[in-house]
Amino acid sequence: MSHSLKSAGKAEKPEVDTSLIDAFGGVRGMVDMTVPGFVFVLLYTITKDLALSSWSAVGITVLLALIRLARRETLKHAFGGVLGVGIGAFVAMKSGKAEDFYLPSMIYGVVLGLVYLVSVLVRWPLIGMMLGPILGENMTWRTQNPGRLAAYTKATWVWIALFALRAAILFPLYWAHKVTWLGVAKIGLGVPPWLIAIYLSWLILSKAPPPIKVLQEEEPAEPELPVPTEAEHR
User: Which stretches are transmembrane (predicted)?
Assistant: First the structure.
């Protein structure tokens, strides 16, 4: 199958905005990952019962995943939430330290931030790799559209800054064993900064050159063979 490159009109702002939100799990995905942490810190602050708080967080995560399953929604982010909360609960109960409930996700955030940083340094910004296929341009932004390469690089730096901010606030609270404040900070550094990063990324991309979309050409129809007439059979 052959391909052709066609310059598309400027991407509509709502399209870019929706694509960004979907690429990062959607608002529902962020809520699903925020609620278990809220349940954990609330119960632990009230009861100081690590096991109860951990199992309650795991239970609410599984419940949210089942609701997604019942609604026939994607389980990709729900599964990630169950896995993340489950690991955090296991580590916390194993060590006996409530703050360790948040440690796996904190380490994951640092690793993810480093991945974003490396992607910028090697000129393969992760935002572009995520959005290119969604917006129909694939990787044309890297070789044929330097303006979009620059925009994707700037947008990726926004997310690197977000991960760095989270680490700078969360780890000192973790080392100080401030479980309640750590839980509150984890929630506060969830959806609000995520929405800000989405908006800044959208703002950067809305001012970028239009994407060069990759369109698949329809395969040429096979030529029809002439149907022999009765005379030709004779």
Answer: 20-46, 52-70, 77-95, 107-135, 156-175, 181-205
One digit per residue, the tens of pLDDT, for the chain of length 234 reads 444 444 444 444 444 456 666 666 666 767 777 888 888 999 999 998 999 999 998 888 888 878 877 777 666 666 667 788 889 999 999 999 999 999 999 999 999 999 999 999 999 999 999 888 888 888 999 988 999 999 999 999 999 999 999 999 999 999 999 999 999 999 888 888 888 998 899 899 989 898 888 765 444 445 544 444 444 444
Q: How far, in Å, CA of 175 to CA of 123, rounded?
A: 35
- Closest of 130, 137, 133 to residue 213, by C-alpha: 137
Query: What is the residue type of 192?
Result: P
The whole-angstrom separation of Cα 77 and Cα 74 is 7
Tokens of 3: 């391909």
Report phi then psi at 8, rounded to 5.
-95, 165
Provide the 3-class DSSP secondary structure of residue 34.
helix
pTM: 0.77
Note the Cα 23 to chain centre separation in Å. 5
Furthest-apart CA pair in the chain: how many Å? 98
CA 127/CA 109 separation, integer angstroms: 16
* 64 residue type, one letter: L
> How far apart (Å, rounded) are the C-alpha atoms in residues 28 and 186?
17
**What ranges do the domains of the chain cover?**
19-210
